[in-house]
Amino acid sequence: MSESKKTARPMCERCARPVSHCLCAHISVVPNRISVLVLQHPDEQKHPLNTARLAVLGLEQAELWVGEHFPQLEEKLATVDAAFLLFPAKEHNVMQPLVAIDATKAALLIVPDGTWRNARKIIQSNPLLSSLPHLSLPEGEPSLYRVRKATEVAAVATIEAIVRTLTVLEPESDFQPLLKPFNVLVEQQIEAMGAEVYARNYGRRGS
Ligand SMILES: [Zn+2]
Asked: CB under 8 Å to 204, separation ≥6 — which residues?
């Protein structure tokens, strides 16, 4: 058994953060009309900055599926009137203009979560996704995501991408509270980095 600090740290089962840095107190559940389905690549699951999980916890209607191939997708799509994929379109895909969605329709926003490479893998492994209208991320404020390399889709955190998109699709709702735990997470990460830099510069003196 490894006795490294990482495995020994007690984790919060809900937000998947160390208990000492649990974000649950900052999560409030925001009602959403357009349900969200995050398809998360397994590589993201254990990532300390797993913001998709925070988004799903903070929305009334949201699900997170982890994997690469999702055979249950067909059944899920059959339950809604319209579904959209949050991913830039290739030439042959339909790019849907991002406008508010008819309130009478049961709509589903599907969000692949992972690096560009892994998000593409998910789309390739689930041909149904390519047949859906694609949405590209609406422009917004620069990302707060200063602590992670910008290799993710559209170089913003998944939670920011979801907030921006839902804000356009459901203009009558306020999704900003969803970002609260994310903002705290970013602060925590910067703090942790500061401590590491401090340890590197001063901690080994005399060793
Ligand atoms: Zn927690």
From this structure: none
Give 126-177 pLDDT, tens digit per residue: 999 999 988 887 766 666 555 455 444 446 789 999 999 999 889 889 999 9
Q: What is the pLDDT of residue 16?
A: 87
Which residues place a Cβ less than 5 A from the ion ligand 1?
A: 12, 14-15, 22, 24
66 contacts 42 by C-beta, under 8 angstroms? yes
Query: Quick check: helix, strand or coil at residue 38?
Result: strand
Q: Which pTM does this prediction carry?
A: 0.82
Cα 205 to averaged position of ligand 1 atoms, centre (Å)? 36
DSSP β-bridge partners for residue 111: 38
Distance 19 CA to ligand 1 centre (A): 7
Window from 4-13, 43-52, 111-120 with minimum mean pLDDT: 4-13
C-alpha of residue 158 to centroid of ligand 1, in Å = 18
Measured in Å, residue 15 CA sits from the centre of ligand 1 at 4
Distance CA 80, CA 34 (A): 10
> Is-contact 84 130, C-beta < 8 A?
no
